[in-house]
Request: fold
Amino acid sequence: MDRERSAHREHPSGQASASTSSEYGGSPECPLSERVFRRRETHAVRCGNVVIGGGSPVSVQTMTKTDTRDVLATLAQVNQCADAGADIVRVAVPDMEAAEALRRIKAGAKCPIVADIHFDHNLAVAAIKAGADKIRINPGNIGGQERLLKVAREAKERGAAIRVGVNAGSLEREILERYGGPIPEALVESAQRSLEFLEEHGIGDLVVSLKSSSVRATVKAYVLMAEKTRWPFHIGITEAGPGTGGVVKSAVGISSLLTLGLGDTLRVSLTGSPLEEVKTARSILQAAEAAVLGPDIISCPTCGRTQVNLIAVAEEVAERLKDIRTHLKVAIMGCPVNGPGEAKEADVGVACGRDGGILFRRGKVLGRVPEGEIVDALVRLAREAAK
Ligand code: SF4
Reply:
């Protein structure tokens, strides 16, 4: 931290009010600045009406947790996820009945459908014939390269994309033995071997994932893989677990990769509902500044100086502005310590004090409003600014 930045007032949030990620990303003093936030260039791969990679927005995926053979339940969950912001939804295909159910699921789905296949390449072929927009296969358990090629040729013929999904828990035995465990280099070799094989046989439209439940191993694997291929990356931390721990682990891993410019589509893998996965994925994208999925709400954590019900104000403002899709910074601050400074830097903001707050728009003071009118006034200002 430079002298000027370290001289900023200490704040209960633990952050200096003037530092931003964009300042950091562009700093010539930062030895990593060449790599930070610069998106890796990749081929574009079409999955239904969503393009993965090639500079397209990072898409959000999730996976249904219903029995795929139950078409109505699965379709309902697919569309709930799409309504919540999932761009692509994956379904498990453990048997032929599930593969056949895909046809009806696909017909009613609001977003592209990925079929998740393990062990039986015939299921992959059936899922592609049933209309899957993409299949996820695991080279470690699909039964060898000839079977992989059979699936890939079917996918090519019908325009389906293929995710080569390497997982630390199911690497090819020979690779596992040679490396002595599922280390990042082993994941990379497994993926590279399959990609090269498919490319040699004229197969394109590939996406790669290298999943481990270890954040460090996952990040290292993708960094290594980025040197070896131009196919886009599906990122995530597999089996991240339940609750806050799972959310935090996913956020740490995924945001680390996004910060390095790695990741073209992502899935948060929680022991929880798919809607929670979608919500978490979108929050990570927004926090990593990899997407604009709502306004950037800058609100203080509150402390003993707060004299309005700031938590309720912040929550209501965030809820009422969640449909905004333009860059908009909204500051909601509890007192004069950092309040005016943050509010002035934001597009619109309020710096609260006793029983009310001072409204700001792009650095200019607009006047004071009583506490009961803060939310309406700030929402009105924000909507005007968003236009
Ligand atoms: S009330 Fe003031 S000092 Fe306390 S956290 Fe909010 S802005 Fe910071």
Remarks:
- The chain has two domains: 44-287, 294-386.
- Residues 1-28 have pLDDT under 50 and may be disordered.
- Residues 294-386 form a domain with the Sulfite Reductase Hemoprotein; domain 1 fold (CATH 3.30.413.10).
